């Protein structure tokens, strides 16, 4: 089969034209050798609406000692990682999927014993960490990952998206005591306890391309009628049935391939196995026969620093288009946010009627929004959902979030938002060349909404047509599938232009058909019956396992700790990687004495992320020199006048840290080490005086409050916040026994005397 790829537009040709060093191919040289990751190769086969991928990472050690390389990388959030193997010379080792703690122990033991080993762990649905250890001097090691996943299909087009870079993420919270659990630039916090594992150092703009990128995609329509094929962000060539990325493309943005298909129909596929089988049901939406109901709409627009450049322009346009979809029967509110929450002054603090005047004021406000600050997403979501909490049953509550989603506290947001979503449909519009698709998809799924991704300005108009249709009411609600499966939770609504896709398991004989029931917009009953086809396609089983694991992991993040055992059991039984398991490969041959030089692979700055404009307040997104600490050149100090968002961190080896405020550098917070020693002494005093009468202990607590108040009063930084709160509690007085116990607890925790180990970063 031969097909053509749509020609590149002028802006895309300008982007890839020329012979600048930025677009060149080759490794990045440092004083101590080249960085370890030398190539990234993606080989994909698309069969209808299923994608199979083999991702090959190639590492080389140019040092004179054994090397351990750490690489933080993204994968498609809905893809199932089903296999891994490590190759060095003529030796290939197949990886084993194990419980994560056991896998880490096996890896660490192998490294200490001088044996080659590699491990791959999931940090987020779309962020993974790979470590390859004991690479001997001069040796090359490759690690292959096998994946399978569905293509998103909407409005007659399928999308194959393969992310290539983990973008910097805003990390809120109070830094945790003790060593970090990873090697990234961000401190672990109480909100994001694994922040150091999802924040790899970033290459400064202008450095030559350190990684050779190869991407090849073979397309088999599998009986569907294939129309135009388009690559959104990379220059590609087509030969026969294969699309290939041209040499010289950088690993700084998602690879996105869109395939126009025609002739789709509803279908149900059952794949039997020893324990029953797996099914995949696809139902096309009916044509809407009635107008949409009036809506209460809250629009949240992210104006944080990571949204600068073309993303801010696209976000403003997207938000304005959403406002334009409203009618006089609707009410709405517009909220813009970074680390502050703002609304158009003329529209007040509640929902207002979508009159021409109000919509004009909203668009006028949006037109003046500029990027700045950090991505504090929790508070605007809380406020937006609060406005919609009392929506009438005659109106549809809708929340639309326009953002790049670059936050690290995804689990916290999902957990705390779940109880207040109620009837509200949450739609997410992700704008970035390396969008946090995993988080935005999970958020939209929680709100029974849709997630639309916009990776370039050229894609905006097409995406907005889809978004406008999604914001409208679904064509079918209260969807029930018979027979049903407990995992994953099936969708509850069918939207215009978007097929309903349901995955599940059956334990006895495969059903002869599936029945889908629901209600149309006018309240009438709707039903469709789909006959079953029997297949042996193994991808269906893996895709179900991945979807089930995501559902269970989201429930775990929401506080259901009892699902941990089913998560591990499902992952190991079906051979699909999750956050509680890991693939580990260990070569039995000893190749070193166990002494290794550790290197964290820097990643590209995402394409389209502007170099900071120091005159305007915006977050200090972390960048590192091409060589990380210990590799020659140290990371640069932050430029003067470049304020950081709250809790944003520069690489630890960098120069002065900056804090928000006005555009100038502020003093770095005091090191709390000396106060920890004082806190330990205060604990000893309290323990010694615990048997004194109540009135004496009350005086001792008042004295303690006075001394602590003097110590923390002039110090800056969130690390001292627990002591400040303790001072306030002691000053307010109350039951002496409770205050005594509270003082002991806070001081012990601050001094690091809790006697408890930090919980595992993946839990």
From TrEMBL:
UniProt-listed Pfam families: VIT, VWA
Top-level taxon of the source organism: Bacteria
Coiled-coil region list: none
Ranges where the VIT domain occurs: 21-149
Span list, region Disordered: 1-22
Domain VWFA: 296-471
PANTHER family: VON WILLEBRAND FACTOR A DOMAIN-CONTAINING PROTEIN 5A (PTHR45737:SF6)
Name of protein: VIT domain-containing protein
Source organism of the structure: Lentzea roselyniae
Taxonomic classification: Bacteria, Bacillati, Actinomycetota, Actinomycetes, Pseudonocardiales
């Amino acid at each position: 089969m031969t097909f053509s790829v749509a020609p590149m537009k002028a802006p895309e040709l300008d982007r890839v034209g020329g012979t600048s060093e930025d677009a060149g191919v080759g490794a990045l040289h440092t004083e101590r050798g080249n960085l370890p990751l030398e190539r990234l190769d993606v080989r994909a086969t698309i069969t209808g609406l299923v994608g199979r991928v083999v991702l090959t990472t190639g590492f080389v050690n140019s040092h004179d000692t054994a090397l351990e390389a750490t690489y933080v990388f993204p994968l498609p959030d809905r893809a199932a990682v089903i296999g891994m193997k490590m190759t060095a010379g003529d030796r290939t080792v197949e990886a084993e999927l194990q419980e994560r703690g056991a896998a880490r122990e096996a890896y660490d033991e192998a490294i200490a014993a001088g044996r080659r080993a590699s491990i791959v762990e999931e940090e987020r649905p779309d962020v993974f960490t790979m470590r390859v250890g004991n690479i001997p001097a001069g040796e090359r090691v490759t690690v292959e990952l096998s994946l399978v996943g569905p293509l998103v299909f909407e409005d007659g087009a399928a999308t194959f998206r393969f992310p290539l870079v983990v973008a910097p993420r805003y990390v809120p919270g109070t830094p945790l005591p003790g060593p970090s659990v990873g090697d990234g630039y961000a401190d672990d916090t109480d909100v994001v306890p694994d922040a150091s594992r999802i924040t790899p150092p970033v290459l400064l703009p202008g450095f030559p391309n350190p990684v050779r990128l190869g991407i090849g995609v073979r397309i088999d329509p599998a009986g569907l009628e294939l129309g135009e094929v388009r690559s959104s962000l990379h220059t590609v060539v087509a030969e026969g049935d294969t699309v290939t990325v041209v040499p010289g493309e950088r690993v700084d943005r998602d690879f996105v391939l869109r395939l126009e298909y025609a002739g789709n129909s509803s279908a149900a596929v059952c794949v039997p196995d020893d324990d029953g089988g797996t099914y995949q049901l696809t139902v096309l939406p009916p044509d809407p026969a009635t107008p949409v109901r009036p809506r209460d709409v809250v629009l949240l627009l992210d104006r944080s620093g990571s949204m600068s450049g073309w993303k801010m322009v696209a976000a403003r346009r997207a938000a304005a288009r959403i406002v334009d979809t409203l009618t006089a029967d609707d009410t709405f509110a517009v909220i813009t946010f970074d680390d502050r929450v703002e609304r158009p002054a003329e529209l007040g603090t509640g929902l207002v009627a979508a009159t021409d005047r109000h919509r004009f004021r909203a668009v006028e406000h949006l037109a003046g929004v500029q990027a700045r600050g950090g991505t504090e997403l929790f508070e605007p979501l809380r406020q937006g959902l609060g406005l919609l909490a009392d929506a009438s049953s005659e109106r549809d509550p809708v929340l639309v979030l326009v953002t790049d989603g670059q936050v690290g506290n995804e689990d916290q947001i999902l957990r705390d938002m779940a109880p207040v979503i109620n009837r509200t449909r949450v739609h997410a519009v992700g704008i970035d060349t390396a969008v946090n698709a995993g988080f935005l998809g999970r958020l939209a799924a929680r709100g029974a909404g849709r997630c639309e991704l916009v990776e370039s300005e050229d894609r905006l108009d097409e995406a907005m047509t889809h978004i406008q249709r999604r914001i409208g009411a679904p064509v079918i609600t209260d969807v029930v599938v018979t027979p049903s499966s407990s995992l994953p939770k099936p969708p509850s609504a069918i939207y215009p232009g978007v097929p309903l896709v349901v995955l599940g398991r059956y334990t006895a004989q495969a059903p002869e058909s599936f029945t889908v029931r629901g209600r149309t917009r006018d309240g009438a009953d709707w039903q469709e019956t789909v006959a079953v086809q029997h297949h042996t396609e193994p991808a269906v089983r893996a895709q179900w396992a991945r979807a089930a694991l995501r559902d269970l992991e989201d429930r775990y993040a929401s506080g259901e700790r009892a699902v941990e055992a089913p998560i591990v059991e499902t992952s190991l039984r079906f051979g699909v990687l999750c956050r509680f398991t890991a693939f580990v490969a260990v070569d039995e041959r000893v190749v070193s004495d166990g002494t290794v030089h550790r290197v964290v692979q820097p990643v590209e700055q995402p394409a389209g992320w502007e170099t900071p404009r120091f005159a305007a307040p915006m977050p200090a997104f972390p960048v590192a020199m091409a060589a990380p600490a210990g590799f020659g050149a140290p990371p640069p100090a932050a430029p003067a006048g470049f304020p950081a968002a709250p809790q944003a961190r520069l690489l630890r080896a960098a120069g002065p840290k900056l804090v928000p405020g006005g555009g100038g550098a502020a003093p770095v917070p005091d090191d709390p080490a000396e106060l920890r020693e004082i806190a330990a002494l205060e604990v000893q005093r309290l323990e010694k005086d615990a048997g004194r009468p109540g009135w004496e202990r009350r005086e001792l607590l008042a004295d303690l409050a006075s001394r602590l108040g003097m110590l923390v009063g002039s110090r800056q930084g969130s690390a001292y916040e627990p002591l400040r709160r303790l001072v306030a509690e002691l000053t307010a007085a109350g039951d002496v026994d409770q205050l005594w116990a509270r003082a002991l607890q806070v001081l012990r925790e601050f001094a690091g005397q809790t006697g408890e180990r930090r919980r595992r970063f993946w839990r």
